[in-house]
Amino acid sequence: MQLFSHFIYETLPSLEETGSIDNGQARALMPAVLSEPYTMYQLLALSAMHTSYQHPEEANWHLEEARALQTQALCAFNNAHIEVTVDNCVSIMSFSTLIGLHALAEVAGNADVGAGGVLDGFVTYMNLHRGVRAIISQSWRFLNQTSVSPLLERTTSAIHHAFSSNGQTAVAVADRLSNLLDHADMSEESRQVCSAAASQLTVVYQTEPDVAKSSNQPPGSGLLWVFPINLSSEFTTLLSMRKPEALIILAHYAVLLHRRRRVWLVGNVGRILIEEISRFLGTFWRTYLDWPLAQSHGDT
Known about the structure:
The protein has 14 helices and no strands. It is mostly helical.
């Protein structure tokens, strides 16, 4: 009960830099979260992990608790032999999202203790988060018939609005990545895969408060999590192979993570990713990494 209360009053608000939550969103999702054991266990696991960040003197105990709860969540999910229906699709989507957030928090925790291998850990996280896409693709026709339908409509509206936005930073990022791919020494198939990822990232930038403008407005999560969910398996394979073009696209995504460094499950991941990518690629690719590096060492 303590972990559940902690999730409602502390963990859930902590996922936004503003420290506030969308009460309508919470009311829409919570009944579905409570309806399935696997989702409830994973919610408690994320709450335990958040507690470990808040109480570092007891971190090991809380992290062990988080691991045990996540193991229970995964066992419950695997044993359920689930077929997606209108009754369980919101629970499944919530479970997948919580798993992805938990994985990101683990990457951030390793980054903060200097465990190294943040790039490898982040690629693993992206593959996990991308798994949400497969589930949502099965659930989409059902989700529009559930209590989360208004949330989906708002997200769709935000995406449509993004295409009409011409933020200075979004335009600059799109131009830089387009120039990168125009001169890329790679197969046409790989170029198209990277182009699709760059286009998706541009949409995320378009929905952000403009990095190029001074603003006291903290960024919300917006469409930030849509990027890893929408990535193709071909793109994450290019990342695993350390293809420069894919890594540079990831570095530009990391800028947006860096803007949320005060969110506990992001932490220093954005800055460290940019630095690791820059060190790996060396000076030849520096033209495309100067801006991400500058952003990672600034206050934006």
